[in-house]
């Protein structure tokens, strides 16, 4: 049932008409997906994840991404992998349940409607996590959705 509340689609971050990366989020993490350039050996890529900063590129070249993150992440639980010509970066949110409007500070922000949809989906994920015997995949909110991080006393930590 929880997989029914997983992100249905990725958000595109477009800059100057070109897709820089795709991204999605869950209660606990933000995932970035970067299409790798062809004919570059996988060992040539690097990714440096800091608490509030991300750097991605090809060794010996200026970074492809070198930006502050929208919110702090847990560096000990964040990582990156290369899969089928895609760099997948998993950023573990420091504040579980926080809705990110974009992974990169001040860049590619979701519009208010898309941000509201993300917040609603994360709130339903929270309900599903806290009540595993119930199916919240068809649930809907009327009006403003509460913040999944702080609603009714906040997220319980395990």
Structural key phrases:
elongated, Immunoglobulin-like, 34% strand, mainly beta, HSP20-like_chaperone, 1 helix, three-stranded antiparallel beta sheet, 158 residues, 8 strands, five-stranded antiparallel beta sheet
Helix content: 10-25%
The largest pleated sheet is described as: 5 strands, antiparallel
- Total tally of structural domains: 1
Q: What is the N-to-C order of secondary-structure elements (H for helix, E for strand)?
A: EEEEEEEEH
CATH class category: Mainly Beta
Average pLDDT, rounded to a whole number, is 87
- Low-confidence spans: pLDDT under 50, at least 5 residues? none
User: Counting H and I runs of at least 4 residues, what is the number of helices?
Assistant: 1
**What is the rounded Rg?**
17 Å
Described by the principal axes of the CA atoms, the overall outline is elongated
What would your notes on this structure say?
It holds the Pfam family CS. GO terms for molecular function: unfolded protein binding. One of its GO terms (cellular component) is nucleus. The strands form two sheets. Strands 1-2-3-8-7 form a five-stranded antiparallel sheet, with no helix packed on it. The protein has 158 residues and is mainly beta. It has one helix spanning 112-130; strands spanning 11-15, 18-25, 29-35, 45-49, 53-58, 65-68, 73-83, 86-93. The chain has one domain (10-152): Sandwich (Immunoglobulin-like), CATH 2.60.40. The two termini are 20 Å apart. Helices cover 12% and strands 34% of the residues. The radius of gyration is 17 Å and the shape is elongated.
């Amino acid at each position: 049932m929880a997989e029914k509340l997983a992100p249905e689609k990725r958000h595109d971050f477009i800059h100057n008409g070109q897709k820089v990366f795709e991204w999605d989020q869950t209660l606990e993490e933000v995932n970035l997906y970067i299409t790798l350039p062809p004919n570059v050996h996988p060992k040539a890529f690097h990714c440096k994840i800091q608490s509030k900063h991300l750097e991605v590129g090809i060794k010996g070249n200026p970074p492809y991404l070198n930006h502050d993150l929208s919110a702090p992440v847990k560096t000990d639980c964040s990582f990156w992998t290369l899969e089928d010509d895609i760099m997948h970066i998993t950023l573990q949110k420091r504040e579980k349940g926080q809705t990110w409007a974009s992974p990169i500070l001040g860049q590619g922000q979701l519009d208010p409607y898309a941000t509201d949809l993300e917040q609603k989906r994360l709130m339903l994920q929270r309900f599903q996590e806290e009540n595993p015997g119930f199916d919240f995949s068809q649930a809907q909110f009327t009006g403003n959705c509460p913040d999944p991080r702080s609603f009714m006393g906040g997220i319980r930590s395990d």
